Amino acid sequence: MGFLDEIKKAGKDIKRAFKDVLSAPFVKEMCDTTANMYRLGWDERNGGNISYMLDEAEVGEYLDINNVIRKIPLAGVNEANFDVAPLIGKIFIVTGTGKYFKNVKDDPETNLGIIRVAKDGVELLWGYKDGGRPTSELPSHLMCHMARLKIDPQNRVVMHCHPTNTLAMNYVHELDEKKFTHTLWEMCTECIVVFPDGVGILPWMLCGTNDIGVATSEKMSEFRLVIWAMHGIYGAGKTMDETFGLIETVEKAAQIYMLTCNRPRINTIKDEDMVKLVELFGVEYRKDFLDL
Ligand code: 13P
Ligand code: ZN
User: How far is the CA of 90 from the centre of ligand 1 (A)?
Assistant: First the structure.
């Protein structure tokens, strides 16, 4: 075998050394989470989106991270214009725009993409096989990642969805952060322990834009959960489970509220009892959201 042939063969061997990306734990987590969110009715049609920051070395076990499939301009519904400097070089797995959560599990390579943030857009490393692109909410997601990473360097996940009861509650409950959070805390004993920082609320705004991204990320420096009035919710966390669990707990509380709000309330969890809970679990909470 000539020298060139040997180099070619070595190149092929290197290629073969990559593990199958479809078997990667982060792809499986995206598949399982989108399937669960769909099953729970939080993501009708193409509703919802997830972005998950990955470890470069881990991605490198599955993909040649120097092989950029195509460059995609940074955009929501319109071209986006904000400073992504803190995220340049970071790799994310992100749901595709217009893609249905119910379909992700059966065809991850079309419905998901692995992207790297660059100065002037994102670089596609895998996925969006049909020519697709990341969620139209990517500007909001990236701004939220930047905001949360400042508070918690371990933050990895930003999740958006349209949970039914949370949304229903938006129509019948005052959209005041203190009052809304307080009502949710009263609905299940563990709410105040799961989201002691409460829930931020934005008024109805046009989605897919820079403006809603800026507003959401500003709220995210105070809250891990932000409601987009009459639209849905954003959650952020260190892991997929933590982020899913935050939204799941809000949605459960909202469900209990919607099941009971038309009837006289005879019993409730008192503010003094909530204090006992946070003291027992040793969590910092929004004291100004209680009436003591
Ligand atoms: P995408 O399909 O672009 O992710 O949008 C879904 C959505 O929920 C918009 O808020
Ligand atoms: Zn949405």
Answer: 22
Task: Provide the whole-model pTM.
Answer: 0.94
Tell me how far apart the alpha carbons of residues 254 and 180 are, in angstroms, rounded to a whole number. 10
Active site residue 177: no
By three-state DSSP, how is residue 55 classified? coil
Check if 207 has its Cβ closer than 6 Å to any atom of ligand 1: yes
Beta bridge partners of 226: 200, 234
Q: Please, which pLDDT band fits residue 76 given cuts at 50, 70 and 90?
A: confident
Q: Which ligand is nearest to the CA of 47?
A: 1
Q: What is the pLDDT of residue 4?
A: 57
Asked if 224 and 197 count as a contact pair (C-beta separation under 8 A), the reply is yes
Residue 80: pLDDT above 90?
no
Residue 24 has pLDDT above 80, yes or no: yes
Q: Is the dihedral of CA 129, 77, 142, 204 positive or negative?
A: negative
**Residue of 137, 186, 248, 251 marked active site:** 137
Q: Give 76 Cα–ligand 2 centroid separation in angstroms.
A: 12
| Model pLDDT, residue 78 | 87
What are residue 144's phi and psi, to 5 degrees? Answer: -65, -40
Is any atom of ligand 1 closer than 6 Å to the C-beta of 166? no
CA of 89 relative to ligand 1 center, distance in Å: 24
